[in-house]
Amino acid sequence: MATESPKIKIAIIGGGIAGLSLLFGLLKHPHLEPTLYEAGPEIAGDEGAGIGLAVNALKALELIDPELRKAVLRADSVALSMPVAKMMMADVDHLYYGKELLEVSARDEKNGGVLFQRSKFISELFKLVPSTSCRTNKKLSRVSEHEKGVTLYFEDGTQEEVDALIGGDGIHSNVKKHVLRDVPGNWDSFFCHQYFYVALIPMAKGKEVLGDQYLNTLCQFCWLGKDNFLIHDPCNNGETLQLIAVNSTGETWDSKEWTREKSLSDLKSDLSGAGDLGMGFYELLSSQQQPLTVRSTWEHPPTPTYSSGRSGILGDAAHAMQPWQAAGAGQAIEDAMILSTLFSEVKAASEVPSALKAYTEIRRDRTQYVQRMSQEMGTFLLGDSNLVKDVDAFRKIILGRWDEMWYFDLEGHRKQAIELMKAS
């Protein structure tokens, strides 16, 4: 009588979108035993942040499992109309003040992407997985890798033995430090000299203050200012308006600083030069709980690998990027899609390093291309608005930058990943 092979134990560190998507994808395969470990007391997204998923991210969710695409709909998401975004001039001193600079549209009018509140989507993802597969209050402190597996040490004094470790533990990832422990160089994330205010307010209040000229359409509006950039978009089935005000700064932030407090005078200064729109943002943002809190933007230097032995990283832990192409969450979901595909082919624990090596090889170039494009876009958009002297030239720089991200052949990407794994 043949003995059944032991299940392959996989630890996922971090309960964000990427970690939960990967967990769901791995649970489909009976030969895998994945468990997600979250440092916090519960698995929940940030209440004050909305995010967008473009067509590539929605396709990646579907390739993991159609149920994940349905979870987007249940998260009170807003399906963007055409165009999906408009870029306007907010600098009152600029020749084009108040005028439209360009529109960004998807190829398919019925599939332009979605906007939703991050916490609602994470809540929907969490409903799809058994609670026994998620463990909270488990902050990873140390990793030890050996010939037969990986030992995880948690701050509560407990430890776990697993066959594979996947870190989705964010930009200051402990798993990343383990994966890159023997790689020369400094791979720490760095502050991008940008911070942003963010608020979710009732759409009715937004229309009362800002007017409804730009709020009656399911579209993201982006306003180019002088050293600042303002965004407003709908979420929660269009009942909520998200406001984001981004500013460049010469300040130095410590790696442990995610947020800082700002005064109302700071807010007014940061919104100066944006005319009536800036004053409308000021009225709405200043009505939020005081003191105001701004959040920082960080990114990784491009790293030479996303894996080492039996350990790998995904999402922000692997390639944290600036938000200027709205692509970070989508790339994390693509990572989860490739990892779930590769692990579906892993039949013995000894094959884990080959799967993770193939993951690095297939994902590094694509994610770092998107990372580079996002960084360049930040330079274009959060700089001197006088760079926009010729709208036609500006459009040529900006338009087309999404095509390779949105319309990438993800099914071919999966096939190539499996081929790489089998060839190693």
Strand order of the largest sheet: 6-5-14-15-16-13-18-17
Q: Describe the largest sheet.
A: 8 strands, mixed
Q: DSSP helix count?
A: 14
- Compute the number of strand runs: 20
* Arithmetic mean of pLDDT: 93
The structural domain count equals: 1
Oligomer: single chain
Give a brief description.
36% of the residues lie in helices and 25% in strands. The chain is an alpha+beta fold and 424 residues long. The strands form 4 sheets. The chain has an 8-stranded mixed beta sheet, with helices on both faces.
Report what the structure shows.
GO terms for molecular function: FAD binding; oxidoreductase activity. It comes from Lachnellula suecica. With 424 residues, the protein is α+β, with helices and mostly antiparallel strands. It has one domain: FAD/NAD(P)-binding domain (3-Layer(bba) Sandwich). The protein is built from 14 helices and 20 strands. The strands form four sheets. It has an eight-stranded mixed sheet, sandwiched between helices. Strand 15 (228-235) and strand 16 form a beta hairpin. The two termini are 32 Å apart.
What does the secondary structure layout of this molecule look like, with pairings?
Elements (H helix, E strand, L loop, with lengths): L7 E6 L3 H11 L4 E6 L12 E4 L1 H10 L1 H9 L3 E2 L5 E5 L10 E5 L9 E4 H10 L6 E2 L4 E7 L2 E6 L4 E4 L1 E4 L6 H6 L10 E13 H8 L9 E5 L3 E8 L4 E9 L10 E4 L1 H7 L4 H12 L5 E8 L7 E2 L2 E3 L2 H4 L8 H18 L6 H30 L9 H8 L4 H4 L3 H14 L1
Parallel strand pairs: 1-2, 1-12, 2-8, 5-14, 12-20
Antiparallel strand pairs: 3-7, 4-7, 5-6, 9-10, 10-11, 13-16, 13-18, 14-15, 15-16, 17-18, 19-20
